[in-house]
Each structure stands twice: as structure tokens, then as C-alpha cells.
UniProtKB/TrEMBL annotation:
It comes from Listeria innocua serovar 6a (strain ATCC BAA-680 / CLIP 11262). Keywords: Membrane, Transmembrane, Transmembrane helix. Coiled coil: none annotated. This is Lin0399 protein. The chain crosses the membrane at residues 32-51, 57-74, 86-106, 112-131, 152-177, 197-219.
């Protein structure tokens, strides 16, 4: 959809103040790299528990996260600034997905296919949600059309995830404050019915989806779209604001 956005439209969307801010912020790219590296360390810590059950998957996570870091460091300073939000999101999305596979261990799954299917669906679902949010933003900015179904859907999902995050925090605080009596509760269910198993299964499935898509709240459609447009029309913006190549792109 952004392929049809002209430079004139991009220039009207990205203000001169934003261009000046980006140009100033590119002088401090070391802080961006530092934040990414700290996030990567936490992400790797979240991925490590899975090594007890699926050694191959934490290795894959390390490769994915490592490649993200290498590609980010290789970017020119201005693109380090514009792509920071996207890389940060991808790091935490990877961490969430590879952390959740710990809870998908099934004895009968000898070939570890369940985590593989979950990883594929996890990335697929998050990409679809991100794409819907980006398309919604592009339509809001560059098209004067009525509210579409996709816009409503992406907004609803985002609000649900926000509510899920709040409930998760409340649940953690509640557990910490009432841990002593929760641990002493009699949870024995001698005659658990099929319906109870179904309810628990649905509840766990909802939790799995919620925690998998939670990192999408970090993603900013506006920053992503503007980063793509600046990348697409980098030379046009540079010439319009009369920057030299060194002033605009910076030094690696």
C-alpha cells in the first residue's frame, strides 16, 4: 500500500520538526544500540528455559536475535533511529514466542512438532496483526475513506491486548499478595468433568494467544510507516532540507 505513496504525500506527513529531531537523534545512536542489546539479553534469558526440552529452538532464537542485532548495527545512523522501534518489537516478539514453547511440552510429541507449529502460527498471527495496524494507519493518513472493517478489527485487538496486559499485571500483584493462602488451597478435583477440561483448555489457549501477541503493543505503525517513507525517499528528503550526505546519513 505504501508503494503508491508519493514523495509529496510523504513530505506532507513527515514534518520538518520530525526531520530535525531524527537528524539530531542520529548523533546518539550508541544509546539505541545499547537499548537493543539490553533487550536482547533479557530476550535470551527468556528463551533459555526451553533448552531443557527443545535444545534446537533456543538455538534458532539466538540465531534470529543475533541476525537482528547484526543487521541493525550495520545500518547507517539515520536508519538506526528510524528502525529502532521495529527492531525492538521483533526482539521482544521473538522472546515471547520462544519463551511460551516451554508450556507446550507434550510427552507424546516425540518430534517436537507442536512447538514448531506454534512458532509458525505465532509469527504469522503477529505479522497479520501488525500488517492490519499498518494498513489502518496508512488509510487514515493517505486516504479519505470511511472506517473499514480492518480498522475496527485492529483497534479492537489492540484494546483487548491492552486490557489483557492490565489484567495480567493485576493477577501477578494479586498472586504475590495472596500467595500464602493460594498455595494452601485444596485444588483436588476427583471427578473433573469433560466440561471443566474444556473450560481450562480454552482459558489456557486464550492466555497463550494473549502472551504471544502482547509484544505487538510495542510496535508503532506511525514510526514504521515514516521509517519506510524516509528510507524510500531518503535522497529527496536530504536534498529538500539541504543536508550533505554526511549530515543526513551520518557515519557508521
Amino acid at each position: 500500500m505504501m508503494k503508491n505513496v508519493s514523495y509529496e504525500e510523504a513530505r506532507d506527513t513527515i514534518s520538518s520538526k520530525e526531520i530535525e529531531q531524527i537528524n539530531t537523534m542520529k548523533e546518539h545512536t550508541s544509546s539505541y544500540i545499547g537499548k537493543i542489546m539490553v533487550s536482547i539479553l533479557f530476550a535470551l534469558l527468556l528463551c533459555l528455559p526451553a533448552i531443557n526440552y527443545y535444545p534446537i529452538y533456543p538455538a534458532v532464537a539466538c540465531i534470529l536475535i543475533g541476525s537482528l542485532l547484526i543487521r541493525y548495527v550495520a545500518l547507517q545512523p539515520i536508519f538506526k533511529v528510524t528502525n529502532y522501534n521495529l527492531v525492538l518489537y521483533l526482539v521482544w516478539q521473538t522472546a515471547a514466542i520462544f519463551f511460551m514453547i516451554v508450556f507446550l511440552r507434550v510427552e507424546a510429541d516425540r518430534y517436537h512438532l507442536i512447538p514448531l507449529v506454534y512458532i509458525i502460527l505465532g509469527y504469522g498471527g503477529s505479522i497479520l496483526l501488525i500488517r492490519a495496524r499498518v494498513n489502518t494507519y496508512v488509510k487514515e493518513i493517505f486516504e479519505t475513506t470511511a472506517k473499514s472493517g480492518k480498522k475496527v478489527f485492529s483497534n479492537i485487538i489492540t484494546k483487548i491486548l491492552g486490557a489483557f496486559l492490565v489484567l495480567a499485571v493485576i493477577a501477578v500483584l494479586f498472586y504475590r499478595g495472596n500467595k500464602w493462602w493460594l498455595m494452601n488451597m485444596d485444588t483436588a478435583v476427583g471427578n473433573s468433568s469433560f466440561l471443566e477440561y474444556v473450560v481450562w483448555g480454552i482459558g489456557l489457549f486464550i492466555l497463550l494467544i494473549g502472551f504471544t501477541l502482547l509484544p505487538t503493543l510495542l510496535f508503532s505503525p506511525s514510526q514504521y510507516v515514516k521509517a519506510r517513507l524516509i528510507g524510500k525517499y531518503a535522497e529527496e528528503f536530504r536534498k529538500a532540507y539541504r543536508f550533505t550526505e554526511k549530515e543526513w546519513y551520518g557515519e557508521k
